[in-house]
Automatic annotation (TrEMBL):
Catalytic activity field: beta-D-glucose 1-phosphate = beta-D-glucose 6-phosphate
Enzyme class: isomerase
Keywords, ordered alphabetically: Carbohydrate metabolism, Isomerase, Magnesium, Metal-binding, Phosphoprotein
Gene encoding the protein: pgmB
Protein name: Beta-phosphoglucomutase
Classification via PANTHER family: 6-PHOSPHOGLUCONATE PHOSPHATASE, HEXITOL PHOSPHATASE B
Protein family according to the UniProt entry: Belongs to the HAD-like hydrolase superfamily. CbbY/CbbZ/Gph/YieH family.
InterPro entries linked: B-phosphoglucomutase_hydrolase (IPR010976), Beta-PGM (IPR010972), Beta-PGM-like (IPR051600), HAD-like_sf (IPR036412), HAD-SF_hydro_IA (IPR006439), HAD_sf (IPR023214), PGP-like_dom2 (IPR023198)
A GO molecular function held by the record: beta-phosphoglucomutase activity
EC number: 5.4.2.6
Cofactor(s) the record lists: Mg(2+)
Cleavable signal peptide: none
Length: 209
């Protein structure tokens, strides 16, 4: 699978860098204002989904309802907090083995793309000093449908000029694995095999490769 691939499409959070902790802190700050507790267990439900979908899940947890205008305002506030946190990012926060594996893929002539729901993806890649290693960056600014919809991976595949069967997706979330499979691609899951059962291969991190 990995030897034959012509394109590698990576999720961002939990695969390239662990920004989940910053999402958690920003969401928790918002829920404290709203008057309910937001736990790390709750945060697991937000992995791999868009900002507005995350907010909907959050409000469901708190059993709250707001107008669309108010929800947009809250999502904007959360994002400003998140951007404050990630503005301090540097290369030291790359997940183990990421830079080495990307270099190896480039040497082999494999196309490299990012497929993330994050609207801050390019900002984060710049902070990590690896933006130049990607041939295509597909993020929440370029697609409208959140994972498990395959749109983000289909778009990345198209920008690489490849067919789905030629691409492998690297994902840490169930929704992302489902999106990769729906796009007709093979998927490497990064995390626990019992959680990422639909993946073709499960590893603990890119350092294994």
């Amino acid at each position: 699978m990995l030897e034959q691939m012509k394109g590698a499409i990576f999720d961002l959070d939990g695969v390239i860098v662990d920004t989940a902790k910053y999402h958690f802190l920003a969401w928790r700050s918002l829920t404290e204002e709203l008057g309910f507790e937001f736990t790390e267990e709750h945060n697991e439900r937000l992995k791999g989904v868009s900002r507005m979908t995350s907010l909907d899940i959050l409000l469901e947890i708190g059993n709250l309802e707001f107008t669309e205008a108010k929800k947009l305002e809250m999502a904007g506030k959360k994002n400003r907090l998140y951007v404050e946190y990630i503005s301090q990012l540097d290369q030291s926060e790359l997940m183990p083995g990421v830079k080495e594996y990307l270099k190896r893929l480039r040497k082999r002539g494999v196309g490299i793309a990012l497929g993330s729901a994050s609207k801050n993806a390019l900002f984060i890649l710049d902070k990590l000093n690896i933006a130049r290693m990607f041939d295509a960056v597909i993020d929440g600014n370029k697609v409208s449908r959140a994972k498990p919809d395959p749109e983000v991976f289909q778009t990345a595949c198209h920008e690489l000029g490849l067919q789905p069967r030629e691409c492998v997706v690297f994902e840490d979330a169930q929704a992302g694995v489902a999106a990769g499979k729906a796009a007709g691609m093979q998927v490497v899951g990064i995390g626990k095999p019992e959680v990422l059962r639909e993946a073709d291969l499960v590893i603990t991190g890119l350092h294994e490769l």
